[in-house]
Batch of 2 targets.
Target 1
Amino acid sequence: MEKFMFIFHGGSSSALSPNDAQSNMQKWMSWIENLSKSGRYVSGEPLEPKGKMVSGPKKLVTDGPFAEGKELVGGYFIIHAKDLDEAVELAKDCPDFELNGKVEVRPVMKM
Amino acid sequence: MSSQSINQLAGHLFRHEAGKMAAVLTRILGSDRLEVAEDIVQDTLIKAMETWRFNGVPENPSAWLHTVAKNKALDYIRSRARHEQIHSEIARTIHSEWTLPSSVSRLFSEHEMEDSQLRMMFAACHPSIPEESQVALVLKVLCGLSAREIAVAFLTNEETIQKRIFRAKEKLREERINLEMPVQTFLSDRIEAVLKVLYLLFNEGYHPAESNAQTREDLCEESMRLVYLLIQNPVTRQPKVFALMALMCFQASRFDARSDSVGFVSLEQQDRSLWNKALMDQGFSWLEQSSEGDELSEYHVEAAIAAVHMKASSFQETNWRQLLSLYDVLGTLKSGPIVALNRAIAIGYARSYSEGLEALKNITELSNNHYYHSATGNFCLLLGQQDKAMEAYTKAMQLATATVDKDFLQKKINSISPSFV
């Protein structure tokens, strides 16, 4: 098994009705539960939509947000998968595609 | 995370909490800031969704939501209070860090939140707000439905609903309808309007319209939840509120029996074993409680009518004489051709089909109502007047708009002797 990172981009949730928001959340929880049961899920965390950016030799500090709402990183997972193809298949179960979200699937480099 | 934490949220936690929080925040910020209150609710729910989906649902999800919403409200007040006026009952406390957090926290207590929902309900039913806007506002603010979801339920477009909601909010601002006053101040002159809106809401869900069954059940459930809030409060628990609750329970108990895989099933054809026994029992128990006092409201009579149907083991066994006398009483409380139509149907079964038909003929206002022509067709058919029955059902068919109604009428037309062309 190799490690992969899922980086979740966008997925506009601000216009969801309370019911839609709850059902989206429940889909995520079931997804994580399934990944945990099959021993795939390692960890994951959500990110606040705010923060600072430090950049360049002058260590310039600027305020977030760092990308358009639809590109903003909302969180990440670390999961186990056999290979990149399998990781991609697992990523397809992410509930946010219907909200136009994206999942970036990246192999964690082996040391 | 366990599946337990997922199931814990079964039901409609977000929707119900949205209604509670919107009501209390409007009470805190003033009804001219209803939209700010709604934004805070939305931000709170989105934050919960984004956090919980990774970390699981906290031990006490409601308390978590209330804390986030409360802090957002405090932030809002702190950033505005110096330059802008807040028109609400806590206005005097907001300029001091000594009093602000405690007065906001006090209104977030379970008891005050329930009270805030009642105040919101009574504010939304202010006589200056048109009825359709009252209904839309209650659904949006107190039931946590989006304009799109309301539009689906009412078979209209989102824009129309947005306009109705806008109108209601405009009136709240213009007429300075705030949530400061306790409900008993205008209880007597507004409870009628509140009950009417809740019953309208229920009927919108109960009517077998095209919109999806889930949405309609949601409307019924929401209206019953709000009636229950009225029952729980000592000030608003009046006999007619019990009566409305009884009526809703009886009607809701038939929800599953009213449609099958093919379509709408009329009361006559329903499989009565599908009626929900628990809801029926609740209905009878509320009906009993509604008889305290000597007030007789239209809801009492309508609930009693529903109870007669509930008690009958089959359509044929229905006590039509009792129904007829109840419709006579209802006619004195609530005039209108629909009561007359139902009374005529009761006459037809209690006395004779031809007397029923005669009573129908005397109703002149319903020439554009498909139920009227359908009832006429039914009695004609029972009297063996196939040509007249065909004529009436065809007329009904032309007037009906909902597919469920059309399917029902088409079945009736098809059942009329094929030798008749």
Target 2
Amino acid sequence: MSFIINGLLLGGTYALIAVGLTLQYGVARIMNLANGENLVFACFMAFWLYTAFAINPILGIVIIAPMAFVINWLIYSYAMRPLVNRSKTSGQLEVNSILATFGLLFILKGLMKFSFGGGYFTYNYLAEGISIFGHNYGLNRVVAFIAAAVIAGTLYLFLNYTRYGTAIRAVAVNPTSASLVAINVPRASAFAFALGGALTAASGALLSSFYTFHADMGMDFTMKALVIVIMAGVGDVRGAVLAALMLGLTETAIATFVDPGLTAAGTYGLFILVLLFRPQGIFGRSNS
Amino acid sequence: MSRLNKIFSQISKQEKRIALYCAIAFAIIATLPLFDQGFYLSISVNIVMYIVLCTAWSLFSGPTHYISLATAAFYGIGTYVVAIGIKDIPYPVLLVMAAIVSGGIAGIVGLATLRLSGVYFVVFTLGLSELIRQIVTWVQTNFSGSSGLYVFTDIREMHVFWQLLGLAVIVYIVGWLINRSRLGFAMQIIGNDETVAKHLGINTAISKILLFMISGAIIGVVGAIMAPRFSYVTPPSAFNPIISFQVVIMALLGGTKRLWGPLLGVIPFTILFDQVGVYFPDQTSIVIGVAFMAIVYLLPNGVLGLIETIKQKFTSSTKKEDPT
């Protein structure tokens, strides 16, 4: 049964990426397809901090996440806001933001390939075993899972029990009504976009501690995050965590019992099933 | 036959003249292999290939605004149909089969996703080529024990060129027929406002699926025509996701409101990508990224839109001068 624990450990990191994306899409209404590049960039930062300054990736989050927050805030203010203002319908905004973030994706990928090369990167942090229920697991995976759980828990408390968190949830439900109750919607959107970016970067830092990464893998993770977000229902943080764990389990099960080369096929299979039978998401409520 | 006669009787004199000019232009282009069989033929094959791909893409994505990234999937399916069948089945039959298989898969994808909002469609089509590529790789390594298939034929580059040119003619005729059919009219209304279209009694889902199948079938045939050029077909070469992105860029940069719009994007960009590939092979990603940015921030309606606004400004300024 070790695949269950392996799947959950993997799902923990997926959960943070997906929560980041669901904040960006659900609140700021921007489908950020460059989110995976954000994650890869954080992987490289964590690698650099660990190898050059011996700062461990968990501590590295303290540096990487605020940096990602600022960068994403700038991306939203200078690249995305003009699109939000220009687009008359949500459909137009969707098309424009998809195209713009594709642009961002390819530029970031190109820059990372240019600066780091196309090779595979990995470093040894806590690469020792820990025994859970009689099976051995990488200690770095367990630590990353615990860190992810702490971050996701803090976010949950923030969104549900603080004033500003409630405001962000209000924007997610309906931006027009939110501005009627004196919520600064443009600022809340920028904040949610930046926070989403910071969460994704944090998960990148955690992922890099146990995962071999390369400049080209951003798109794979964006796809996983998207499948999770759509499975969960857009904007649903709790659902995203559950769906992420499900995806982690599915992938590990396929890799263990069928073929490691078919994990992405499994992801899309799951995606098709959700689209066919519950297009509003497994945990989502239908709009009408 | 009576319907066909009706269509022909509706063709205006001006349209007949345009058709004649186009036929002459195509005939002149078709003589290219007689003059050069090297670089110019090779890049012309690429240009004509992207013209067909982008025009087929715009047939569906232009009016609906659904951004399809499934080009690589249909293209790869077409390539694989030829690669698998070339030893036993005559080549022309394979081209028809490629159209049927790609169109059929487009229909299934459409059924699953086109009822839903745009993002789902983009995400799904993006994943589709990856999904099919993984399955093909898995089947090949587990059941045939090789990582690719050889395609040995007598078909040379100039034959590929002529076939693609012929397909381009077909695509333009199909596009022109769709534009003046009930389906084309329905698509215009759907593109402007889907709710209005539904209230008018248009079955929006079926219309979209039908158009997606036509577009997918054409792209499949392109893949099939290109298969002999590969000579050794592997999943990563047949299902190359970059093709999907390049098609989107070229079509949108050209403009999708007119049938010939994508042409304006394809010619400069095929040459640009070719040059970048030769001199800066590691920077193609940045070029693609900048092109996407240009589409969104500088040319939202493509070169075509730019030409039309300039034309409009010109005519409106001359009109203003008239009364004075």
